[in-house]
Give the backbone structure.
Amino acid sequence: GREPHVAALVLARGGSKGIRLKNIKPLAGRPLLAWVLGAAADCRRFHSIWVSTDHDEIAKVAEKYGAQVHRRSAAASNDSSTSLDAVMEFLEVHKEIDVIGNIQCTSPCLKPSHLIEVIQMMKEKEFDSVFSVVRRHQFRWLEVAEGQVTQPMNLNPSKRPRRQDWPGELYENGSFYFATAALIKSGCLQGGRVAYYEMAPEYSVDIDVDIDWPIAEQRVKRYGYFGKMNKISLLVCSRDLQIECECKDRRCTLSDMPEIKKMKDSSIRVKLIGGSDKQWNKEWKKETVEKLIKDMSISWENVAYFGNDESDLECLKKAYVGGASDDTASHVCDAADYICTSRGRISNMEEFVNHVTLLTEKYRAENPGDDNASEGMNNKKHTHESTSPSNGIIVKKIKL
């Protein structure tokens, strides 16, 4: 018979209470939504990937990162609406779907391997629902009114166990909820033949309030999924008038930046282009970078590029990773992979250089002792679709 249609669905309404437009706020340089979409796309097990939203900006980001958009109704988008309401509404429109993986946007450390394993559980063991959990070693006590006596809920205080002697308990971590369409239509996301999927604590990040943001950002930099890593051989930074003014105020040059000096000391070549001394346009910038690429025998897939002007657009689009400041024109930001949120253009450039350093470290960790590994072979950047003739699964290579 027909292979079940497995769809990824991310619920991302515009009315997040804790943080305004939380779902597309930059986290470690990418919109929050982009992290889970990257994991969903690269697991290559979904027949379709969807974002359900009521907000135009969220829809725009969803499409940029390869998802299809379901326009959620006002009735399923208000503060009293539940996830089940939104999923059921989605299924009413998309009747071809047999299994839904409801992936939480607020879990940015999700990896493709997690999704591959849970889909395998659904198919091979015929579970009706599977959800993610994390193991915690926390002793619980009964909540009582002031002045009343409490009592333990999950321990015997006279035989208080050591952490290593107690397996702990399993808690939902909110990363995902998979369920069959039949179960969801019955009014339930967890039921029938139900199972859990345990995730390691380091991948269990859930962003609820602003104070969690810097903590989550550090966790994502260490444990987040960055996609297939390319070797970066060339870093190009484009100077604009604002950068030159900041340099003048600081009485410094970009070459004096510790981050730039450190990069020059590594195997990555650094090139500073642009500036008021010459009227640079997009063709000149592109030709300058392409000459460097030719001289170095590399490709655009080995280039990191930072720029904030209209003249930087083509280079940002072509580079393996492009960076721009969050206060630049929206269409320039749209072309970038990494959005810098530091204050000031020089600080933005420093932030991007640090990001390139992080990507380089991750590449080297994946390719130990292989600084001369083949370059330019990975074409992760440019979006396209292909349908595997064997299973009909849509594979999207998206700009991560």
